């Protein structure tokens, strides 16, 4: 066989080329005479470069979508896997791949040992391959990299301890668009290949034309190719047999041989079984399609997926697909002289090793493939940018679970090791017992990263099932946090009774803050900072009296502020809007805690005799003033604009709307307009839904002023800790803007925004956004399109240029932590706490989608609109920064934004101490902070083969990249080069005997490292280490 030589020079391509609507769009097929000519030429050369076909049976199983995870398992998945054992045993050359360990591990639990042996045998024979090996096939747009990685670790660790296998290739065929973070995590976990499917139709055509559907995917910062992963992109629409054997679905549909009595499908009616009479014709037609597919690649190898959603649940299908394809393959192989083809069943690894043996050099691509657009339903572009925002309540909750889980993993690792090393059997026993529930909390979080879960694209009852599972995880993580903290702070054999300060009765309820117990007029509040950096955290607790003092762990009285707690009373006259009253028995104590890196600290809120108290806030209100006996100084809001001010800036608000207008930085005296607008797009019926976004541009207004008919009330509350403007817009929106007063703190450098938005009830075809309109010139010339920057999975930043032709829907991108715009002298950043859709469609504008409510389905299979909206809390930081004249090679957040983002994503945990003696008022778990450009992503105790905690923990570190062209307001705290710990850093009270460098999911161990001093992580990268005790 003559090896095919291809281009020697790697092209570096960034997928940001112009998108236009090509002429072939109506026919929904890019295959034209140029492609056909190229195929024919290639076909003439098959003697020199034979066609190689790999037939790969697979079943795409969603861990929840139209049915719940458990329902799918019972109805389909267990049958697929049971049949798999019988059929792989019966047909000795049959292959199969499996991706979702969530399903597989559930099935394995009840599997007879004899069958377990068979599974291991199929794996050894390389006939059963685990692709990805992650808990689920994650969404790649709305997930944060913490959870993406966590569910890879969960799956990989399971595979290693139960089957003894390490995955080699990843399989991501149904996620709605593809980003660079999933391949990065897979590559860093030791996988060398990946597969993608759903990308924008013009990209599909472009890659096909360039014969570049197998390409090297490289990270944007990587100049050496360390992150390179070989990616195979399926060239046609979707992974069903009809859409994947070649460019012509009307031919391919005849090769889906599933025929089940009582099932009426297109393929069931069209596909004729292979027999002696038709085999030649059927084989030759199919070969043509395979040949066409292969002509899109330089190597002439074609990967043919044989399957679809939940296939092979019936034993007959296994027989039908196998027997028919086996006959075709045997016939083609027997006539090798005629067909010059080698065809067999195989796995994903078989495909990639064939490709690598035939082709040595590939096109290199950097960047991502968002936004996905298909054309196959209507022959017009349909942008999948709705799901970036769909069901925000769930999107917020998963991040809450994520923060809790990260916090507990770290604390648990310290607590259980401390208990073992100090010989405390009492605590060891209790903590070991909790490990199983901790695992289930991880697995629920992992499950929710599935591409129909966090995306919000499952049916309403399935979303509710996910919600319950998330709530369970919140409760578990709170409970284990309480136990771990109690074990670290109490005397041997004694419990400290800790409770979380937040209560959520059931899924869908807004969280309620519990009032601190002031019996004995002293309440104890325990704070846990899981960030390995010093943290200034704004703490809020609810008390029954406004007359209190706050003491830090040293007993020093610190500055605090007493705010009112409002109750909304609906009277008959104002039943829709209600009236605001001061709560008589509840007050909010606000203070800023100075917390050490990775530490626990006990603060006290102490009741005082009623007296004059400077901490009590002043309240400005434009409604009725409350003349009853309230402790607050009350005043009417003055006419005109409102201004809040601290040492760093002045923030102006529109006196009529109460919404932000501008920020003046005191460093330069320069004012930047940043006017906040709330609006709503009207959805196009049936084209905007859980997946798709399509605003109705036929209406004369580009958007609806959704606040216009709401009853409005502005309240300003100001005191020594913070000043706050709150605006109520009826029952629709409550928004507050806060500036903090703490000289020298980073808290003074941003505006904190929180709001509750509720579009349940009367709203329909409504997609609500907030837009900041600034005077920042994020374009080179007036005629240029604006540029904005969006994070991807909270891991890196990607530049997004406006493509006017694609409409607003084609210019919406996913954000999970940040978006910003900038010009030569300023940068305006919006930090977010959960996934949103976001766009920089308008010059000087950053727009963030908040919630969506659509009555109708958008025709992508889910079959429902989205009407289960809930009152949802969103949190943001707004950061305005001065730039200095240097240039970053790739876009990055500033160090300040990174720090504020950390505070948003991983807030300090607050526990109320109900009872028991706290032996240590302050406990530091680490002797020094980490440099401020190093994040501790996780420190997670690994399980041993019996699924109990082992003597090993996986430490994952992230050396963030930060922008050098932003004036830093933070002291120099990053270290140069790749250093990751300050010298002689140690864990407090825990002896670490070995530090072993390993792959991200802990499957491929590398070299031993002497101490933390020697740990090296290059900027932008994640690295993992096994700590052995
Ligand atoms: Zn799917």
UniProtKB/TrEMBL annotation:
Keywords: Glycosidase, Hydrolase, Metal-binding, Zinc. Its cofactor is Zn(2+). Binds 1 zinc ion per subunit. Its EC number is 3.2.1.-. It comes from the Eukaryota. It is an enzyme of class 3 (hydrolase). One of its GO terms (molecular function) is mannosyl-oligosaccharide 1,3-1,6-alpha-mannosidase activity. GO terms for biological process: mannose metabolic process; N-glycan processing. Residues 382-470 form the Glycoside hydrolase family 38 central domain. The keyword Transmembrane helix does not apply. It catalyses: N(4)-{beta-D-GlcNAc-(1->2)-alpha-D-Man-(1->3)-[alpha-D-Man-(1->3)-[alpha-D-Man-(1->6)]-alpha-D-Man-(1->6)]-beta-D-Man-(1->4)-beta-D-GlcNAc-(1->4)-beta-D-GlcNAc}-L-asparaginyl-[protein] + 2 H2O = 2 alpha-D-mannopyranose + an N(4)-{beta-D-GlcNAc-(1->2)-alpha-D-Man-(1->3)-[alpha-D-Man-(1->6)]-beta-D-Man-(1->4)-beta-D-GlcNAc-(1->4)-beta-D-GlcNAc}-L-asparaginyl-[protein]. Pfam families: Alpha-mann_mid, Glyco_hydro_38C, Glyco_hydro_38N. GO terms for cellular component: Golgi membrane. The keyword ATP-binding does not apply. Catalyzes the first committed step in the biosynthesis of complex N-glycans. It controls conversion of high mannose to complex N-glycans; the final hydrolytic step in the N-glycan maturation pathway. Homodimer; disulfide-linked. Belongs to the glycosyl hydrolase 38 family. This is Alpha-mannosidase. It comes from Artemia franciscana.
